[in-house]
From TrEMBL:
<keyword id="KW-0732">Signal</keyword>
<keyword id="KW-0378">Hydrolase</keyword>
<dbReference type="InterPro" id="IPR017853">
    <property type="entry name" value="GH"/>
</dbReference>
<dbReference type="GO" id="GO:0016787">
    <property type="term" value="F:hydrolase activity"/>
</dbReference>
<feature type="domain" description="GH18">
    <location>
        <begin position="44"/>
        <end position="336"/>
    </location>
</feature>
<feature type="region of interest" description="Disordered">
    <location>
        <begin position="325"/>
        <end position="344"/>
    </location>
</feature>
<dbReference type="GO" id="GO:0005975">
    <property type="term" value="P:carbohydrate metabolic process"/>
</dbReference>
<dbReference type="InterPro" id="IPR001223">
    <property type="entry name" value="Glyco_hydro18_cat"/>
</dbReference>
<protein>
    <submittedName>
        <fullName>Glycoside hydrolase family 18 protein</fullName>
    </submittedName>
</protein>
<feature type="signal peptide">
    <location>
        <begin position="1"/>
        <end position="22"/>
    </location>
</feature>
<feature type="compositionally biased region" description="Low complexity">
    <location>
        <begin position="326"/>
        <end position="344"/>
    </location>
</feature>
Length: 378
């Protein structure tokens, strides 16, 4: 997946190859209208995605340095009745505190979203109206300035019933959320357990049906490859290429073979053995699995449950040599010949242009912002 340029008419290109125009980010942002600034902040990131959930009690959101290496931070959870846990913590901050955190995260390329439902809610079995629930939750996201949602639907009874009610509920809920949180402006992800992608098991079609009906509305899947059996998804082969007969065809590449886009599949794991019933993999082994998957053509990324048990050091290990963490060492002043910073070749602003991310491969014509605006040309 490459940077989508849907709003390029809002900005003239700055020509560069590996260089940037010397326009300070603050100056650029001040030149934009409030609406343009809002769109800029809400641009959806591209793969690979490095997602960190936060549900355990902490008094405030982590600093950028504590979660460096992640590009999505998910507050958990927003429930049908309202905010709980870290979503409630966010709600109780002052507007100024929220604005400050969002600004810091934006500058670091970290999107702040909220996760919905979780293991304590059963939306279909409990009779939640998917349209009304979507409208209420979307309104909360907008009111509190977040950049999207993650649907952590865990109504196992509804799925196991095999009537299709669970899948239909998810389809209706996702569709309505997208009417309120437009694609490209807000992130919308799902966090299904891996077995729900197994074909020919679920009477309603499982997540393969969900993907076939509303997959185009979903930015990516934070797949839970854990809590599904003591030996499930605990080796690179079982995680990536060949799942067990208990949950057939639910390894990463098997899910892709069933029609789910490979770059939408994010490998989800617990931070420690204590964070899940089973399915834990040591970060060093997980890094090896990630490397193998990448060589085989996958670029989805990694999700982990949860902060503060996973921080920057955890994701640095898992990213390894596949997606090395950018150096934080200041570049020394050169005493040799330098290349002058190019002068912008056009005029305009950066409305609608996403923030630069170190783990994104930019192709010709792609535009991004990072302390300035740049456009790569080949």
């Amino acid at each position: 997946m490459h940077l989508s340029l849907t709003l390029t008419t809002a900005m003239a290109a700055f020509a560069c190859i590996g260089q940037v125009a010397s326009v300070p980010l603050e100056e650029t942002l001040r030149s934009l209208t409030p609406k343009a600034r809002n769109v800029l902040k809400r641009a959806t990131p591209v793969a690979p995605y490095f997602v960190l959930y936060s549900d355990a009690y902490v008094s405030t959101e982590p600093t950028v340095s504590e979660i460096s290496g992640f590009n999505v931070f998910a507050l958990s959870f927003l429930l049908e009745y309202g905010a709980a846990d870290q979503a409630q913590e966010w709600e109780e901050l002052t507007a100024a505190q929220r604005s400050s955190i969002l600004s810091e995260y934006d500058a670091a390329g970290i999107s702040l979203i909220v996760s919905l439902f979780g293991s304590t809610e059963t939306p279909t079995s409990s009779g939640y109206n998917p349209i009304d629930t979507a409208n209420t939750m979307a309104a909360w996201v907008i009111e509190y300035g977040l950049q999207g949602v993650d649907i952590d639907y865990e109504d196992f009874a509804a799925f196991d019933a095999g009537t299709g009610a669970a899948e239909q509920w998810l389809g209706n809920f996702t569709t309505q959320l997208r009417t309120q949180l437009p694609q490209g402006q807000y992130i919308l992800t799902h966090a299904p357990v891996a077995p729900w992608f197994s074909p020919d098991i679920w009477g309603g079609g499982g997540y393969l049906w969900v993907n076939s009906v509303v997959g185009d509305m979903i930015d990516w899947y934070n797949v839970q490859f854990y809590n599904q059996g003591t030996t499930e998804y605990t080796t690179c082969d079982g995680l990536l290429y060949s799942s067990s007969t208990l949950w057939p065809e639910s390894a990463l590449f098997q899910i892709a073979d069933s029609g789910v886009p490979l770059d939408k599949l994010v490998i989800g794991k617990p931070a420690t053995a204590a964070q899940a019933s089973n399915g834990y993999v040591d970060p060093t082994l997980l890094a090896s699995c990630v490397s193998s998957a990448y060589v085989s053509g996958w670029n989805g990324g990694v999700m982990v449950w949860e902060y503060p048990y996973a921080e920057s050091s955890w994701i640095a290990t898992v990213r390894g040599d596949t997606w090395p963490m950018p150096s934080t060492t200041a570049t020394p002043t050169s005493t040799g010949t330098t290349t002058a910073t190019p002068t912008p070749t056009g005029t305009g602003n950066c409305a609608g242009v996403a923030a630069w991310a170190a783990d994104v491969v930019y192709t010709g014509g792609s535009e991004a912002t990072y302390g300035c605006v740049y456009s790569c040309v080949f």
